[in-house]
């Protein structure tokens, strides 16, 4: 426990992927995570009260969606283009990725999104001033690239205790080096108590494994957890990419790691990485 009466707290920061995400996109996921966290904790120690996780979200969509809307207005102003929904999806997906790229020409969008993440972190630190906060990041799709870059850029100021990447295209992003083997500086989580779990559905065409990119990612990422995501409609097809937030196969590994962190913080029970990975494997045939 921290000295001087300070408390040790656990914060979960959500980062969405592409699309016009609105404030509140993570609320149902956070509620389910909190519920699962308490249920799993009670199984470990029935005498524990029901502690609350600090759950916050980063909403960066307006930074890119407003210019995309203007682009669509311009290109479609004199032409009645077909396949409107597909075109808008392409503009959103490719537009977010292109706009976020660092170009060396001011990097306005990159810096704005970075500042948005920082503002959420600062708000948590200010709200719980004097307490020691451990940060767990849960990031979907392009959000996983954003948080990876944020943690790398701010390594002197913050280290994630845990990082959960959902349907992450970081492997494809590594092609910016020309050869994925040259992507030799992955972000790092806190060791020996932290974990980076990369969660993906095997039919999600945007999410890819990370550990086989090169030895650096094999060391940084504890597990590529390949599972099934989604309900009757999305399970077994590429629509699974949008199903991670409320799926138990994604939530349980996060909740269980937070339980292990809670027991380490408050009961001095050491974290065992092999035991944690064994738990994940028990959820699905990894």
UniProtKB/TrEMBL annotation:
This is Uncharacterized protein. InterPro entries: AB_hydrolase_fold. Gene3D superfamilies: alpha/beta hydrolase.
